[in-house]
Amino acid sequence: MDMIPITKTEPVNILRSRWPNNQNDNQELINYVSKIIGDVKERGDQAVIEYTEKFDKVTLKPDQIIVSKEEIIDAYSKVTKKQIVSLRRAKERLEKVEKKRLELLNFDIEFKGIRIYNKTRPLNRVGCYVPGGKVAYPSTVIMNIVPAQVAGVKEIIVVTPPNSEGKINPLTLVAADICKLDSIYRIGGIQAIAALAFGTKKIKKVDKIVGPGNKYVTTAKNFVSKQVAIDKPAGPTEILILADDTADPYFISLDLISQAEHGPGGISGLVTDSEELAKKVQNEVEERLLKIPESSKIRNVLSEGGFIYVVKNIEEAISFSENFAPEHIEIIAKESTKIAEKINNAGLILIGKYSTVSATDYLVGVNHVLPTEGYGKLFSGLTVLDFLKPISIVKITKEGLKEIYSNINALSEAEGLLNHSRAVQERLLK
Hints:
The protein is of the alpha/beta class. A 6-stranded parallel sheet has the order 1-11-10-9-12-13, with helices on both faces. The longest helix is centred in the N-terminal third of the chain and has 25 residues. It has 3 domains: about 140 residues, Nitrogenase molybdenum iron protein domain (Rossmann fold, 3-Layer(aba) Sandwich); about 190 residues, Rossmann fold, CATH 3.40.50; about 35 residues, no CATH class. The radius of gyration is 25 Å and the shape is globular. Helices cover about 45% and strands about 15% of the residues. The termini are far apart.
């Protein structure tokens, strides 16, 4: 059986699991998550410690929940200079993009006698979830923290699960230190989300929780969203490649496999109007899997979430992409730029054969915390916008008030709110 099957019919089984078709939530999972959240809310740090021991096989004392300064300093001796330079460069690039975005958000506009200042204000305290345990994602530390810092968030904390020895990956700690993080806690999973949402003696309650995670973390974030703000759903990674017969099948196979490398639950798909390309990609994937280490894990991911969909034309491919709303879409075709202009529903759009998701995962300057499961129809990637509250400051002169009084009067009379008009009129009479 082929690792990634080729189909000429729409993969409805995959579309069924995406927004808005995924509204029939797994009640068993919700009940499981809610019990743990309720327990952490009730018993605080003790519950967090017990669940960390249960799920991560690590026994912590209350004063070990937070990572010490000594452990962070020691982490530098366990990483390479090149890794440190790379993390700093990733931070600098993302910071530059987000500062420009923030700059464009603050402006003022003037009408006759009226000036409106459009300003932004940061959230006070933010909690960032960084996946960890067996695998470390120091890049996600940067992706979470930098936009919040650019926004001016006063306090930023990170939660990340420890490994079997109770340690946090040194690169994760170095990334946090490079970003001048306030606090980092060695807890993960449902218990970490609950602690951020409700607070414990050791962990302060936050205003918003951001960051990607597995189905348990995502469900927990959704569950506490009435108590605390959350970002867009960011679950297992997804890639959709939209390609025509000019695309290189070898490059496509590399990208399908690289995203499957993230682990279970991910989706790696190709939609193309070229049956010949589809067959070549299928063969390239099979050939590549024979040459890479731990290919069995990638095979499992591709067998569950991999697909190649052959359509009649590019317009049909665009239509499918809009319905699918992928986390990442790579467009590799003759008219890549024109096609990109027609894509509205995606977390991130990449154009051309050199624009690989793997680059944006680390160092291009855009965020890799992106909406999955079809939520690209509603949300964008994590940016400085997620940590800001837009606010308008208005200054009106008597001349400006006089200019708009007749319109105010007409509308206040229409709504039966006569004192609104009077509040303006009396000022003009003074």
